[in-house]
Amino acid sequence: MAEDPNAWAPATRLIRGGENRSNQGEISEPIYLTQSFAYESAAAADRRFSGEDPGFIYARYGSPTTQMFEERLALLEGAEYCRALASGMAAVHTALTGLLKAGDHLVAGRALFGSCNWIIQNWLPRFGVETTLVDATDLGAWEAAMRPNTKVVLLESPANPLLEITDIAAVVKIAHAAGAKVVVDNVFATPIFQKPLALGADVVVYSATKHIDGQGRVLGGAILGSKALLEDAYRDIIRHTGPALSPFNAWVLLKGLETLDLRVRRQTDSAAVLADLIGDHRAVKRVLYPGRADHPQAAVARAQMSGFSNLVAFDLGSREAAWRFLDALEIIDISNNLGDAKSMATHPSTTTHRAMPEANRLEIGLTEGYVRMSVGLEDVKDLSRDVKRALDAAA
Ligand SMILES: *Cc1c(COP(=O)(O)O)cnc(C)c1O
Prior knowledge:
Blueprint: H1 10-16, H2 42-50, H3 64-77, E1 81-85, H4 88-97, E2 105-109, H5 114-123, E3 130-134, H6 139-145, E4 150-156, H7 168-177, E5 181-185, H8 190-193, E6 203-207, E7 221-225, H9 227-241, H10 247-258, H11 260-279, E8 286-288, H12 298-304, E9 311-315, H13 319-328, E10 333-334, E11 344-346, H14 358-363, E12 370-374, H15 380-394
Parallel strand pairs: 2-3, 2-4, 4-5, 5-6, 10-11
Antiparallel strand pairs: 1-7, 6-7, 8-9, 9-12, 11-12
The protein binds pyridoxal-5'-phosphate.
Pyridoxal-5'-phosphate binds near residues 113 and 209.
């Protein structure tokens, strides 16, 4: 191919990146549903295992359809290298444990996805890794939390469920001065609207289950960064602990990437319309959308994101009002997933965040009146009618 893929705009990268046509000339990428690979000779097997020949050995180590997905996502992200894994949590767990050992310290924003929080609070301590959780919007708190043994900083921006924004470049500066690597969970922002590596982060993780699939089908995850860091920190843990992505799921995600730019931009346009409709309604005490001027970190969002994604959170004042809202929806589903073509709304304090102690929930501002909505691809006029009806019911 004469064209340099790095010169392509995102939409082209998403369609053409990582293409590896077989001799059949297929248009849609082939699904290589194979566990292992045959070698032409004993000497060829020797070369493959020594690393002299970079081909495939066993699907737990890597496989062709999965590699196409990895190359396409890396090209979109502007990352040197990508490893795809079985789920977002496989990606977060591998990203953290590959960089940590007993006696190390981790600093993380306190508003984290539930399972990330579980790993930090319940799993890492069993292996001698301590964590300090901080208010991710407070740069002084990040600075104060750094210790000589701080090896990793983990942040999520926008964070779940109240869409708090962290100044990524500023936290990177603090972390790097302390000798720590920065891992950013970029799920809510999507690779379309935020590039943590360009802001100085070392590792980006995705749950590909969300916008990258975007049609509610498969689980997947990814870790992106420099080739040297990914090979050094993650190659062996991926090979030997087995979080490999299935080639079939990799194929579904490849197809998801082809329409990611279109889908996320349309969802974001609709989210902005709905956020304003919600913000203007008498039933609503507060709306949180990073694209609105009244978001507490609106300026940081504008500086580091090129779009504000499809999630909106809003406070209806009480659990009863929030539940009345959810129960009055006729198009939008009650569901805790996000990034899907289908719009969905959830009540975080009784679903995604019910395992978080109430004191911690209140610390992150999550009262029982909050609803989190993921805006999908239905016509925005129909969504507006559904949301308005449900807000009227909540009032
Ligand atoms: C969903 C999600 C994850 C976990 O991903 P799975 O694919 O469900 O394992 C991690 N972080 C964030 C921010 C998520 O939304």
